[in-house]
Amino acid sequence: MSDYAGLYRPTSLQPFYTEERCYIVEHMNTPQCEEVSLAECRVAPGVTTQLHSLSVAERYVVQRGSGTMELSGDTSQPQVFAVQPGDSVLIPPDCAQRIKNTSAEELVFLCICTPRFRPQHYRVLETDDVKDMPAID
User: Fold this and answer.
1) How far apart are CA 121 and CA 106, in angstroms?
2) 73-93 burial, b if ≥16 CB within 10 A, otherwise e?
3) Which of 12, 29, 87, 119 could in theory staple to 83 by disulfide, Cβ–Cβ 3.0 to 4.6 A?
4) Separation of alpha carbons 17 and 27, rounded Å
5) 62-115: per-residue pLDDT in tens?
């Protein structure tokens, strides 16, 4: 547990576009607090993020818009379900995941990673033949 106490101010709150096909604003991601990071993710209407996994635990907290979430953990069949504002999604480490914005507005959600997100935690799972998300049953 970090013993740092005090203000953390990010160097920039400008969103940046990622290969994941979304915009990210990192609100808190610092070596001063290795236990957790907090980012805001924005997905344009109709866009599905890249199929990927992280080697850390992640949580999504949906703020605006609606979408379809796909998680492929330790089962052969992926879980596919609708998300809307107020929903939280728990994503364990190494779980394949992606989300599709099904609304006419931006899908905005907070991403909380424990421990904090670092680029080496990200693993691309998408191939040219695996781009379409299964439908919700």
Assistant:
1) 26
2) eeeeebebeebeeebebebee
3) 87
4) 15
5) 999 999 999 987 666 789 999 999 999 999 999 999 999 999 999 999 999 999
Q: Using the Cα atoms of residue 16, residue 51, residue 65 and residue 28 in order, give the sign of their dihedral.
A: negative
Give every CB contact of residue 3 below 8 A, 6+ residues apart in sequence: none
Q: Is CATH 3.40.800.10 what the domain over 39-124 is classified as, yes or no?
A: no
Q: Which two tokens stand for residue 46?
A: 């109709």
What gap in Å lies between CA 109 and CA 118, rounded to an integer?
Answer: 19
Amino acid at residue number 86: G
Indicate the helix (H) or strand (E) that contains 109.
strand 107-114
Which H/E stretch holds residue 80? strand 79-83
DSSP 11-35: S----EE-TTSSEEEEEE--GGGTT
- What would the pLDDT profile of 9-47 be if each residue is shown by its tens digit? 888 899 999 999 999 999 999 998 999 999 999 999 999
Q: Burial, 34: exposed, middle or buried (Cβ in 10 Å; 0-12, 13-18, 19+)?
A: middle
Q: What is the pTM of this model?
A: 0.88
**Domain locations in the chain?**
39-124
